Amino acid sequence: MSLLIKNGRVVTATEDFVGDVLCEGETITAVGQGLTAPDGAEVIDATGKFVFPGFIDPHVHIYLPFMGTYAKDTYDSASRAALVGGTTSLIEMVCPGRDEDPVEAYRFWKSKAEGLSACDFAFHMGVTRFDETTPAALKQIAEDGTASFKVFLAYKGALGVDDDELFQTLKLAKELGVIVTAHCENESLVAQLQAQFLAEGKTGPEWHEPSRPVQVETEGVRHLMTFAELTGAHVYCVHTSCKGAVHAATEARLRGVNVWVETVIPYLVLDDTAAQRSSENGWPDFEGAKYVMSPPIRAVRHQPFLWDALRSRTISTVATDHAPFDFVGQKEMGRGDFTKIPNGIPSVEHRIRLLYTHGVAAGRIDLNTFVDAASTQAAKLFGLYPRKGTIAPGADADLVIYDPAIKEALSVETHLMDTDYDGFEGWQVDGRCDLVTVRGAKMVEAGKFVGQLGHGKFLKRQPTHF
């Protein structure tokens, strides 16, 4: 089937013009002005609306055993939520335990998406130990099309790797041409501070951020930079939350380290007072647990810096670190001990609308930077460009028609994420994803999911980071 979108404001990372986009089958075949519709094509008038490339979230957790429980979403709920929010491709973190076989874990994570996801999907392979069997396993996974790894410099005794394992992982990644994404904190400092606060009776969610202060994250980035410099590996700092951590990465970049920086939407729009919500401050008891994630949401003074770094493209991508847990029965596991609160904020559905509202509409970033950070850079860094991340002949027909005139409120009553709360309850957003396509198939119309579960495909990627 053919689809012609006419008279929309077509925006990519580098272009911005009023024109037409023709899709035939799964592919964009023409972009320009005054295009003629083939016989039988559906024609959509996008006058007054934006036409964006499908957005890519390069950091999500969908299936996730974590802290004694499991994330709530499946690819049923998460892929539908992503699409309604304009995200047409997800890259999920595979996070096996240290005692799990990497290949078996990878296959299991992949099986959770295949045949169910409505949007396209890919993975970062978590490396949670490195022994004599690891190189062969990781090579097999890379050959299957998963050309990025993930390491944790946190969660001591669970997901975290030690320095020997970090060195070996980066060394192998360099040989394979695989980029390594990294959660950067100092796990020993976190453990010490957590123990100190609990011993002092400081048990509420408001103590999560002080137990993982900006110095801990900054030191974690510096630590990674040293190893990346010595091995020559290409690295990507996930969910970067503060000025010191960004500076540590940019200083290393000036020394020749191949490093890219991601932030996530909660850091751009929330501040540390969210996790301080308690009955003492007029909120329902334990409300702050809804906003516990790691690294933590920081003081508001970090936000202008993060926006400036995004505008200058010092920060390459805006992801979510979507990690959905219910408040009742899951977040509540940490009552009396903040270290037991499952970390994460459900946000895969809201990323684009929040970034547009608080970034573009607020004048903090322009439209090209918006597209670059939410789509194009992820495609380029993770081996998907130019198939994904742009509007051009030959690219997949992943498109978002965005109506900036619509204003709506976010709410647990209307979101598709499978959680019992919404971290942005009542927030007003500018614009809505009116129509979303994945490889030419309509998945969203008038802001509602209309697609088919199982339409999504695994995105096989080649190594590009030699």
What is the strand and helix layout of this fold?
Blueprint: E1 2-11, E2 16-24, E3 27-32, E4 42-45, E5 50-53, E6 55-60, E7 65-66, E8 69-70, H1 75-84, E9 87-94, H2 102-113, E10 120-126, H3 134-143, E11 148-152, H4 163-176, E12 179-183, H5 187-199, H6 208-211, H7 214-231, E13 235-237, H8 243-254, E14 259-264, H9 265-269, H10 302-311, E15 317-319, H11 351-360, H12 367-381, E16 399-409, E17 428-438, E18 441-445, E19 448-449
Parallel strand pairs: 1-4, 1-5, 6-9, 9-10, 10-11, 11-12, 12-13, 13-14, 14-15
Antiparallel strand pairs: 1-2, 2-3, 5-16, 7-8, 16-17, 17-18, 18-19
Polypeptide structure, described:
The protein is of the alpha/beta class and 466 residues long. It has one domain: Alpha-Beta Barrel (TIM Barrel). Helices cover 29% and strands 23% of the residues. The chain is built from twelve helices and 19 strands. The strands form three sheets. Strands 1, 2, 3, 4, 5, 16, 17, 18 and 19 form a nine-stranded mixed beta sheet that branches. It has an eight-stranded parallel beta sheet with strand order 6-9-10-11-12-13-14-15. Strand 10, helix 3 and strand 11 form a beta-alpha-beta unit. The radius of gyration is 21 Å and the shape is globular. The model has no long low-confidence stretch (mean pLDDT 97).
